[in-house]
Every structure is written in structure tokens, then in C-alpha cells.
Amino acid sequence: MLNPFTIARRLRRIGLLGLNARNADYVLLYNQRRFYPRVDDKLQTKNLAIAAGLPVPALYAVVREEHEIAALHDKLAPYESFVVKPAHGSGGDGILVIHGRRGNRYRRAGGSLMSRGEFEHHLSNGLSGLYSLGGQPDHLLVEYCVKFDPVFEKVSYGGVPDVRIISFLGYPVMAMIRLPTRMSDGKANLHQGAIGVGIDIPTGLTRRGVWGTEPVEEHPDTENSIVGLAIPHWQELLLIAARSYELSGLGYVGVDIVLDRELGPLILELNARPGLSIQIANGQGLEPRLRAVQQLQRSGNLSADPIERVAFACSHFATT
Predict the structure, then answer these.
(1) How many domains, the chain?
(2) Which residues contact 79 (CB under 8 A, 6 or more apart)?
(3) Strand pairing category for 214-216 and 206-211
């Protein structure tokens, strides 16, 4: 059994970024608090992205008050499917995915039906802050339900995969795709049981995966390989991540993107405190990549052009 000192040396050798270092050396230094509302409020993020010409799921409705809930049924009548999410939610809490209807009932992503009363109760809980950061009263977004790209049909279970790219000073430094599983109840959330699969920055090919703490090469539910998958529109995804620097004003930010079969890449949300599991999914640490960008900053060579920043990332941040 390896002793803690040996483990620590190995982690330093691969440049693994720890939580304290992330907070002290990157989040606190490069993310000004005044810009946090741009990413902590999903409605504000959406509006900023639209103003910047970046793609987002269409917004069907915003619910701010209890009396607006009853009127929502008629407003959503034209849409067979949609998603309800709290504007200040985190970790997927409170997200309700509707995939169809049966009479006056709504069919959830897992196939179960919920009555109008149950639907209204869920929204009421969301407004009260049950799912929001800090439990504060919230507002709700109702938006287009993404139809994921067919390339993911054999490596996802019951939900929509998403791509997480960490951008540092506008340079995409590391990426992974999160694949829903039966354990995660169709959600692309690693803490609930989704698979994290590292993506090679230059090629957009998946390299390795992790399910909890277990390295995996196949999806546990579909038994199809998750290695060597080519992510569609890869250069466009990298460019979206690079441009999210100017959009958010945050130097260290996680950019979550989904791939719709008809619309292509769509920004789901931005995160000012992205988790560090992306390193495990890639089998490499963030530190060397972050330092490479800091060296550009110290030498005065940071680029203002997102295309140039993507080109630098593709030249320097391969996953081996």
C-alpha cells in the first residue's frame, strides 16, 4: 500500500490542482465578485450570451411569482417537450425535464407521469428557493428541451450529455464530456453517478473515462465504448469556451455546452467555481496548463483574439 507521501509526490508530478489551490490561486485572484451574478443567474447568463451572439436554448417563459404558475399550462401548450430549471440552482437540483403529455398530465424524462397539481407544486417549491443556492427565493426558466446529437445515442442513458470546458483567461485548458447513466437518473452530474470522459483538446476525441472512482472504457448501461468518440463541432465548442471569458468577465470559468441534433452547440450555463473531477477524467492535472497561460500573461503575450487562444490551446494542451 502506498504511503501518503508517495501519493502526494505522484499527484504533484502530474500537476493535480487541489481545491485550496483552485480557490486561492485562481478563483479568488481571477474571478471578481462583481461578475458572479453573470454566471450564478442562468437568466442573466442567457441574456449575455444572446447579446454576444452565442447560442443558447430558446427561452419559452420566466416564472417569477406564484400567480404566474397557473397560466403556464396554456403558455406551454404549443410545446411537446421543455425543461424547467431554477435560475440560481446548482448541481442539477430542481431541473424538471418534460418529454411529452398524456391528457392533462406531463410525462417526465424517466417515463413517469405527473399531474398538473404536481407540476405546479414543483414550480412553487422552486420559487420558494428549495433548489437555489443559499435557499433564497428564486425565479424559474422554462426553455427548449435539447435533443442530443445521435453520436451519443449508444453512450448515454435517459438524458442529455454535456461538455464541460474549463477556460482560463480565455484559453480552453481542459475538457470532458459527462454521460448520464441509470445511476444518475439520466442527469449529466458526476456526483449523482454520471461518467466523466476526458477529451483531447487538439482533436476532440475522448481518451478515458471515470465512473465514481472506477476507470471505465465502456458505458455501464449500454456496454458501448466511450473511448475514441469524436465530439461533433469541436472547434466551435472550443471557440465558445474561449469567448465566454469576455462574456462573463471571469478569468477562471467552467463552460457547459450541449450538442443538439438540429441546432448544434448550445451554452447551458457557466460556473465560476468549476469542480476538479475533470482532472481525473483526463488523467492529467490542470496546474501545468494553467501555468502555461500565466506565463503568457507575465510575458505580455495574452491574445485578445479567441481564435488565437483556441489555436494556442490546441498546440499545447494535448491529453496523452
Answers:
(1) 2
(2) 60
(3) antiparallel
